[in-house]
Design a protein that fits this description.
A hairpin with a 2-residue loop joins strand 2 and strand 3. With 493 residues, the chain is an alpha/beta fold. The radius of gyration is 24 Å and the shape is globular. A seven-stranded mixed β-sheet has the order 15-16-17-14-13-19-20, sandwiched between helices. The chain has 15 helices and 23 strands. Helix 4 runs parallel beside helix 5.
Length: 493
């Protein structure tokens, strides 16, 4: 058993590492080894929130007044250091979140660097328009930053989600307070450390502590101009209610129960690779874009299910820091138990059968951590609870279909609308289906496909607002001011 060095990781306020006003600390555990403490972080309080807000407000005027080239230069310097330390960030991600180093943690660190560089490159696009108004009027708009942005972050992909929010907010001239997730705060504190090497004090701050304390205090603080939240729909409703009560700006990226629709003409090896990627099993299914409702046409249902189950069953589940691991660990005991409850219900549901997995490991090395094995249930119906609720674990429910209109209706029969996947080599079927799906992020014949610069966000109860793009930055982190000037006529002669 390796000996982990348990050390304290401070918060960041006003450019300095700080402990909590309370002087208390919270332990951080490693999901791969049950109850193994790997670090301590401050147990933040409302006093810490208030201090962070005050310092972010104090830093805002100078940061917003800085020419965009100055903000761009700072973001590029941050990106350079993040890239130089990418392996450090990846290994800390694997330790902190349970995401496997090779399949998830390294790609997340790489995406973070790309997002800082992207937003550095479009900082100059925060610009208004001049309107035609005749000879005696100058009418134009300014896109101005909102002020202080609270970025409330999740535990499943903290670095990537922080990079959705932080560089976009900074490029537009805002200051930021990151609230790290209770269960995976370490990479966010390291990101804050790097940012504060290249930014004026107070421009980026980072807090740790319970969401019910820190998140709630940020959402209700009158000095926070925008709340940008990523997490569950249930918690998002509470954040929205609190921030909405004072009419604060907000964006929400919430849960998903995403359909993956396979037409009979799409069956080939690329389909199986794509379905594996869309399942997000290499992130233990802990992804809001996981294609967890698998709609297979009846003509190819059994064949695809057999081949996909074999492919998913071959994934190696193990220590996130092991290069050989395809899947890592579930984040904590509570989430592990929640997935177990869904598996119990799936096995007990008439008509459903676990064609792969269906149980948590009961012996061996995997019982040392919070591990689950890939699970595929056949015989699903769209009205089953396992087809309705976000499990956030490596669980697929396969549902047969015959008629295209029927499968589109089933796909849309959900409170969620974040992602969807359509698999067909017939262009009409592929695009007509993609256009009718009620989701903000649709992939055709691929399980990934999202690149930096494309808007990302959900329909319905999967959230509001867009990220990762120029459009998302302008809509999410600026406000429009219209200025009309009456000009006096010039004398002629």
């Amino acid at each position: 058993m390796p000996a982990w060095e348990v050390r304290d990781h401070p918060m960041w306020i006003d450019g300095e590492p700080v402990s909590s006003f309370s002087g208390q600390w919270r332990t951080v555990e490693n999901p791969a080894h049950r109850e193994r403490v790997i670090a301590r972080v401050p147990a933040g309080t409302e006093v810490d929130v208030n201090r962070a807000v005050l310092t972010a407000r104090a830093a805002f005027p100078a940061w917003r007044a800085l020419h965009f080239t100055g903000r761009s230069k700072a973001l590029l310097a941050i990106a350079d250091e993040l890239e130089a330390r990418a392996e450090e960030f990846a290994r800390l991600t694997a330790l902190d979140t349970g995401n496997a180093l090779r399949t998830q943690a390294r790609p997340e660190a790489t995406t973070m660097v790309a997002l800082f560089r992207y937003f550095a490159g479009i900082a100059g696009e925060v610009k208004g328009t001049t309107l035609p108004a005749g000879e005696n009027q100058l009418q134009y708009t300014r896109l101005e930053p909102l002020g202080v942005v609270a970025a409330i972050l999740p535990w499943n992909s903290p670095l990537m989600i922080a990079a959705f929010k932080v560089p976009a907010a900074l490029a537009a001239g805002n200051t930021v307070i990151m609230k790290a997730a209770d269960d995976a705060p370490l990479t966010i504190l390291l990101l804050a450390e790097v940012c504060n090497k290249h930014l004026p004090p107070g421009v980026v701050n980072a807090l740790t502590g319970r969401g019910s304390v820190i998140g709630e205090a940020l959402a209700q603080h009158p000095g926070v101009d925008k709340v940008s939240f990523t997490g569950s729909t249930e918690v998002g409703r509470g954040v929205a209610a609190t921030a909405g009560a004072r009419l604060a700006h907000m964006s929400l990226e919430l849960g998903g129960k995403n359909p993956s629709i396979v037409f009979p003409d799409a069956v080939d090896d690329e389909l199986l690779d794509g379905l594996l990627l869309a399942s997000r099993f290499t992130r233990q299914g802990q992804s809001c874009t996981a294609g967890s409702r698998l709609f297979l046409h009846q003509d190819i249902y059994d064949g695809v299910l057999t081949r996909l189950s074999a492919k998913l069953g071959a994934l190696r589940v193990g220590d996130p820091l092991d290069e050989a691991s395809d899947m890592g660990a579930i984040i904590n005991a509570k989430q592990h138990a929640s997935i177990n409850n869904y598996l119990d219900e799936g096995r007990a549901t008439a008509g459903m059968k676990a064609v792969l997995g269906g149980n948590a490991p009961i012996d061996g090395a995997l019982t040392e951590g919070y591990y689950h094995l890939p699970t595929v249930f056949s015989g699903g119906r769209n009205d089953f609870r396992l087809s309705r609720e976000e499990i956030f674990g490596p669980v697929l429910v396969a549902i047969p279909w015959r008629d295209t209109a029927e499968v589109i209706r089933m796909a849309n029969d959900s409170n969620y609308g974040l992602a969807a996947y359509v698999w067909s080599h017939n262009l009409d079927d592929a695009l007509n289906t993609a256009h009718q799906i009620e989701a903000g992020w649709v992939q055709v014949n691929q399980g990934g496909g999202q690149v930096v610069g494309q808007s990302y966000g959900g329909y319905k109860q999967s959230g509001m607002g867009r990220e990762v793009s120029l459009e998302g930055m302008l809509a999410g982190f600026t406000q429009t001011k219209q200025i009309n000037v009456r000009l006096r006529g010039t004398a002629h002669g």
